[in-house]
């Protein structure tokens, strides 16, 4: 009797824990970036991420309901018609009504799930009416970003401090290096509240550009240009990684997106454009600087200067 009571107490605790876990999906929705021991995907900071999260939660709860019904029926049948009770199995080959039900109901459930999911998938690939375009090119092992039509481009690599620690063999702590291997030397800076079109390709092997908070991943394939878009709703810093095995340093291709308010982004863009602009040419009409004659290469004798002609003799008076 004591053993049976302990089993009942254990099962009761497990059931309460499962109910608490399943009844608070808000707890699962972590911040934009993934966290340690996170139980569920985050909501993200874009409409795309939110659509993916909602589709995921619908599928999850459908599976929970179906699982509860199926395993509940199995458990009831196993307990109710157990051999020790003297149950005798029914003898029949099929049941047309049951077969129709377990065919029609799953089809209707799948249609109900697929219809909104397909609409969301189509919206995720609709890059029309974009306000700016960023070209992303993957290399071993870095990213190149070009703000098309803005005159700004740069490469983004693993931050030097992370690279130094990685090659030194040190074991960093979360306190000393909270973004170890997830920081870069040049962040991709984007404005919030702006529909941004991405054109993504690669120069050498297949890469994949992935930032979880944005809600999508896109392959970067040499010779092929893939498209995607985003509209970031909240300022902040969002991190990602290359998501396609691309060589020995695949794990050292982080992505850092910094989202700024539109006014701050315009100031950043102007400063970046000024820093990358070529030096101004000399004004028209200014005399060209006189360059000194080049020195003779080492080991060679410089040519002798031309002799100065002697003065003409003075005529006799």
Walk me through the topology.
Layout: H1 2-22, H2 25-28, H3 47-80, H4 96-124, E1 132-139, E2 142-147, E3 152-156, H5 160-168, E4 188-191, E5 196-202, E6 207-211, E7 216-220, E8 226-230, E9 236-242, E10 254-260, H6 262-276
Parallel strand pairs: 1-5, 4-10
Antiparallel strand pairs: 1-2, 2-3, 5-8, 6-7, 6-9, 9-10
Q: Would you give an account of this structure?
A:
Its main location: membrane. Residues 33-128 form the Cytochrome oxidase subunit II transmembrane region profile domain. Its cofactor is Cu cation. This is Cytochrome c oxidase subunit 2. It catalyses: 4 Fe(II)-[cytochrome c] + O2 + 8 H(+)(in) = 4 Fe(III)-[cytochrome c] + 2 H2O + 4 H(+)(out). By secondary structure, the protein is of the alpha+beta class. It folds into 2 domains: 2-84 and 95-124, Orthogonal Bundle (Helix Hairpins), CATH 1.10.287; 132-276, Immunoglobulin-like (Sandwich). Helices cover 35% and strands 19% of the residues. The protein has helices at residues 2-22, 25-28, 47-80, 96-124, 160-168, 262-276; strands at 132-139, 142-147, 152-156, 188-191, 196-202, 207-211, 216-220, 226-230, 236-242, 254-260. The strands form 2 sheets. Strands 3-2-1-5-8 form a 5-stranded mixed beta sheet. Strand 1 (132-139) and strand 2 form a beta hairpin. The chain is elongated, with a radius of gyration of 34 Å. The termini are far apart.
- How widely separated are the two ends? 152 Å
**Envelope shape:** elongated
Give a count of the beta strands, DSSP E runs of length 2 or more: 10
What is the percent of helical residues? 25-40%
Number of domains: 2
CATH class of the largest domain: Mainly Beta
CATH topology of the largest domain: Immunoglobulin-like
Pfam family, one: COX2_TM
Subcellular location: Cell membrane; Membrane
Protein name: Cytochrome c oxidase subunit 2
Function: Subunits I and II form the functional core of the enzyme complex. Electrons originating in cytochrome c are transferred via heme a and Cu(A) to the binuclear center formed by heme a3 and Cu(B).
């Amino acid at each position: 009797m004591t053993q049976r009571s302990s089993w009942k107490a254990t099962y009761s605790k497990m059931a309460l824990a499962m109910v608490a876990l399943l009844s608070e999906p808000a707890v699962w929705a972590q911040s934009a970036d993934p966290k340690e021991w996170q139980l569920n995907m985050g909501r993200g900071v874009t409409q795309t991420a939110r659509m993916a999260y909602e589709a995921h939660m619908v599928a999850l709860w459908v599976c929970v309901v179906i699982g509860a019904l199926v395993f509940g029926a199995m458990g009831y049948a196993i307990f109710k018609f157990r051999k020790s009770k003297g149950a005798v199995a029914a003898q029949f080959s099929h049941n047309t009504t049951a077969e129709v039900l377990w065919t029609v109901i799953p089809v209707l459930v799948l249609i109900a799930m697929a219809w909104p999911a397909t609409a969301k998938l189509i919206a995720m690939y609709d890059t029309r009416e974009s306000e700016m375009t960023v070209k992303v090119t993957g290399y071993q092992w870095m990213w190149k970003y070009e703000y098309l039509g803005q005159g700004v481009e740069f490469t983004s690599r693993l931050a030097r401090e992370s690279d130094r620690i990685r090659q030194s063999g040190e074991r960093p702590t979360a306190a000393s290096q909270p973004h170890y291997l997830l920081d870069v030397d040049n962040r991709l800076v984007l404005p919030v509240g702006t529909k941004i079109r991405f054109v993504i390709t690669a120069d050498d092997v297949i890469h994949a550009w992935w930032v979880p908070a944005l809600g999508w991943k896109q392959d970067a394939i040499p010779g092929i240009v893939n498209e995607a878009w985003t509209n970031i709703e909240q300022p902040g810093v969002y991190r990602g990684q290359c998501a396609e095995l691309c060589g020995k340093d695949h794990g050292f291709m982080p992505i850092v997106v910094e989202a700024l308010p539109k006014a701050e982004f315009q100031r950043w863009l102007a400063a970046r454009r000024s820093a990358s602009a070529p030096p101004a040419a000399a004004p028209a009409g200014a005399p060209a600087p006189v360059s000194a004659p080049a020195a003779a290469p080492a080991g060679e004798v410089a040519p002798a200067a031309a002799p100065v002609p002697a003065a003409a003799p003075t005529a006799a008076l």
